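Onboarding guide, step 5: your first structure request.
Type a short instruction followed by the sequence, for example:

Predict the 3D structure of this protein.
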Amino acid sequence: MARLKLGVLISGSGTNLQAIIDASEAGTLDAVVAVVVSNKAEARGLQRAEHHGIPAVYIDRLAYDKPKDYNHAVLEALQDHGVDLVVMAGYMRLLGSEVLEAFPDRVVNIHPALLPSFAGANGIHDAFDYGVKVTGVTVHFANEVFDAGPIIAQEPVVVAEDDTVESLEAKIHEVEHRLYPHALQLIAEGRVHVVGRRVRIDPR
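The system replies with structure tokens like these:
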């Protein structure tokens, strides 16, 4: 059986991308990263991709008059590399319908909180400032609303009394780097099914 081809969208350092690449190369993830696409030229994740011989594509949003034209360029890059599943890994843009409709229930995102709590770009800080005792990580299918798609996997993270935002962030990232490849492996095994608002995961 052919390994799942991933198209990873990034905007920054690409630590989740690195975790996915590492799992793929270790054989614990039955998928390969076929292309990495960034909306930021300076994103370190592009260098990570190149280091592993993975095509790295920068697409400048400002080069396009309309968001839909930019989204079509992203879609073309994904399709040119035969992508089966789109993986958002710190991609700080709302993905347009142009990509979502081309990959129905095949666009995945990760969020550093237990959705639906603390959605948005500042999930770690918002949870910490609110004073929660437990936060966590969510992997979910993406749709046209930020952090609102069906949930695939979640893992809690306890906020210790002596945690700072920085220490909590480190704990969140540690979980992300384990949970994201695990969720992608469930998809690669064909065990993940979207049923309305819920995701059913078949047992082994």
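Each response can be followed by summary notes, for example: The two ends are 17 Å apart (CA to CA).
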